[in-house]
Specification:
Structural class: alpha+beta
Shape: globular
Strand content: 15-25%
Distance between the termini: 21 Å
Strand order of the largest sheet: 1-2-4-3
């Protein structure tokens, strides 16, 4: 996909088909769609600072005991030291995306040791 919010609709349709093809139970699919959508939205907003036409790659692979989804952008890398999670006792302005992804996934990691951008890995 490219870094326009309108692309998220096509991404969800594609991802829904991919998840079904990897035999992900239907009741688990909405959470994974949400998690991937949040990571892509973060790439659009933070890595590319709202610039359209930039690449975001999403891939899905599975084995007998796990499903791995990778979301990769080539913009400004994620800086974990600057991330502030949401204030759960108030109505937060931001920070919910990664909080939700971490809640949904068994494991979330990221790779910024590259020429540019961030690769997120959801297991």
């Amino acid at each position: 996909m490219t870094s326009e919010a309108e692309q998220l609709v096509s991404l969800r349709k594609w991802l829904r088909e991919e998840l079904a093809g990897h035999d992900v139970p239907k009741q688990e699919q909405p959470n994974l769609l949400l998690a991937v959508g949040e990571l892509c939205a973060n790439s659009i907003q933070h890595a590319y600072e709202g610039r359209g036409g930039q690449p975001i790659q999403v891939s899905v692979r599975s084995s007998v005991d796990s499903l791995v989804i990778e979301v990769e952008d080539f913009g400004k890398p994620f800086d974990a030291e600057l991330y502030e999670g949401p204030e759960l006792d108030a109505v937060p302005d931001s920070g919910y995306g990664l909080f939700l992804v971490r809640t949904i996934a068994d494991s979330l990691s990221f790779d910024v040791a590259r020429e540019r951008g961030t690769r997120w890995i959801i297991v």
